[in-house]
Amino acid sequence: MVSPHEYARSQQPAFLEQLKELIRIPSVSTNPENAGDVRRAAEWLAADMRRIGMDVEIVDTPGHPIVYGEWLGAGPDKPTVLIYGHYDVQPAERETGWDTDPFEPVIKDGKLYARGSSDDKGQMFAQLKAVESLLLSDAKSPVNIKFLAEGEEEVSSLHLGEFVTANRERLKADVCVISDSGILAKDQPSIVYSLRGLTYMELHVQGPDKDLHSGGFGGGVHNPAQALCELIAALHNPDGSIAVPGFYDDVLPLSAQEREEIKKTDWTEEEWLRITGVPQVWGEAGYSLRERIGARPTLEVNGLLSGFTGEGAKTVLPAKAMAKISCRLVANQSPQRIYELVRDYIAQITPPTVRSEVRLLHTGEPALVDLNSPAIQLAITAYEKGWGKTPVFVREGGSIPIVADFQRELGLPVILMGFGLDTDGAHGPNEHFDIEMYYRGIDTAIYFLQEAAKL
Amino acid sequence: MVSPHEYARSQQPAFLEQLKELIRIPSVSTNPENAGDVRRAAEWLAADMRRIGMDVEIVDTPGHPIVYGEWLGAGPDKPTVLIYGHYDVQPAERETGWDTDPFEPVIKDGKLYARGSSDDKGQMFAQLKAVESLLLSDAKSPVNIKFLAEGEEEVSSLHLGEFVTANRERLKADVCVISDSGILAKDQPSIVYSLRGLTYMELHVQGPDKDLHSGGFGGGVHNPAQALCELIAALHNPDGSIAVPGFYDDVLPLSAQEREEIKKTDWTEEEWLRITGVPQVWGEAGYSLRERIGARPTLEVNGLLSGFTGEGAKTVLPAKAMAKISCRLVANQSPQRIYELVRDYIAQITPPTVRSEVRLLHTGEPALVDLNSPAIQLAITAYEKGWGKTPVFVREGGSIPIVADFQRELGLPVILMGFGLDTDGAHGPNEHFDIEMYYRGIDTAIYFLQEAAKL
Asked: Please, which of A207, A276, A321, B157 could form a disulfide with A306 given CB 3.0 to 4.6 Å?
């Protein structure tokens, strides 16, 4: 008799090689030129699911495909676990600070360096390898398994919501588990119970109808790059809060008890400076760091572009300037409403000397997880067995827009069972995943599926 | 007997083809990858000078070469005219709004479209073709000619100053003429008597030591793109003046008489909106448009770059942000002093939550031309003959840094004999040169060389 955990341990080298194979496919969902790679990753994943005995369908969407696999061998009287993950990744240009090729995984100090190693190929794959360990060991799985992997999470799950709504029956389950978040520290597992939503916009400022000579026209034309900066500078107040009228209207106040709870997992200023490399902490006055990240909405500039940005000097007065701006939102805020507030405020403060436009790129709903669901207790037990330590509960600053859909459309408790670390560098250069976390994640996910039989 | 003007008219088609050949060489001085092209343009120009009988030397510098040609056949008792121009051009990326390949000249509605067609290959070449018309017609030239063409004007004449200082004797002349500016209108020639100087800088802001996930860190880190915008927004006052302390200290006030004179050549608001395409005029309160462009210093953002600027969305919190910033300066201002003032002000207003640095890229001195020199009268006569109309005097917003060097080092009167138009699109997309202006320019330059015999 080979147990699932014995199987998983014996297969560790294979599990690592397989993950590296998946990572080598540059499935960057936001780049149109990578569309073929995203499909290739979907097909690779589908083949791996079929190999372990799942029924698999690659579902086409107007964007990137959804991979859906199921194994219902436990029988209709047994609980069903819906596992969600994504096989698409953020862009990764070597010149943005990567020490090695982002799509050629390299192992250094026990960590696997590559785009997607943590977010989310590595974490999703830990779940799939747990499923494999149950299905291919002698034990088999005590629960039915539905595995949903999408290729558009990094572009705000553009078409997954429709799929979920249209497939309510098919996706019916007793609990949903997602490994696409971080734990507090290598020796301190944690369960995320709050996710921020997202409103992603582009701000365009147009001045003259074409680029002009800065000598011949400078001084008589409102420079659109300057005007863009003036608009962006007006989006925050000196105390770090957001100046857009109505921005905080729907934010639920934190209770004293919740603030006490959050305090337990806060960073010290020293930790924060070490993790981020900034010279001094910044943020909304009156809130701790963990509150700023997890419990308060933000407005960030993700990109700026105007005029000449190459080496050397070009004395151009640019015709236009552009900023990518995104807001992270907390429970009870509406992404669409926030877009409208920002759009209207920008329109109101744009001077008559330039033209401006705020375009909505995409949105994602914020989510809060019910800490009283029985499924949460199973997750606690799984971490205790897999990690040897009781997890704590934290609010996460990031967004997994589909969580709100699962809650609303499927009426499911959602467990955010992260295996990553804040320091993994998700979305930045030199993203990595601790290989020990990968293996512990597989163990913990096996325990969770076994525990889920009690539901 | 073929007169110089007859020669010039008979050669018009050839003069146009030759200019197109020179334009096809993409001699973009600021791009290191075009260094070979810049040299090729120098060699092409040197060959053309040799063909018409000049003694030519290609002078190497640590940057791009200087082409120096002379014809001293008029004899030591005759006046000498020093002609200056530049064969390097601004960058021109097709995707910045060009309708056609910037380095493949196209003729539309009597205009030659290509980078450098006006600034300065076209205007410089009009001077050289005037020299050719004198040397190769039966008349010969009544004055000695020294022709200095540099390949670094668009990067602030990095090495020309040294060459001028080291070659004071060799460059000795009675007058210097430069065709690298505009005239008021096609039917109204003008002579520029004031040029702005330049201080070109890069402002760098660094936040975290690497790009971060905007969800995991946004709200606890001062976003460097936002901080950059806040710094740039603080560089101007609400009345359009520059907020850098001391910026205007050395600016000479305009006399009432000068303001009256400037008023004669001012743009109407309607003209300005039509030329630039902006929705409303902007600028320093208390000054007319022509004063803002020609008589007041400015501070312009020439470029902005931070974070993700591709298609779609990337929720990155950028590690750094950069702006290209340049100041146009007026007579009596010191470019180095202005750099120091901007640098110190930025250092003073940079919050402790980010790090900033202002780097000086290059400088150029402002210049005022003495309107009482006898050479100015010759230029007036040349325009009257070439254009059939008396030129007016104007202040130009652009910079020709070497003018101050010629004045100081060689003690020469400098005549800015422009043939371009404000609407030529110098430094922007779809730069063009009216072919009629090219031919009239050649005629006028011939008249000037003939008039110069009277010096």
From this structure: A321
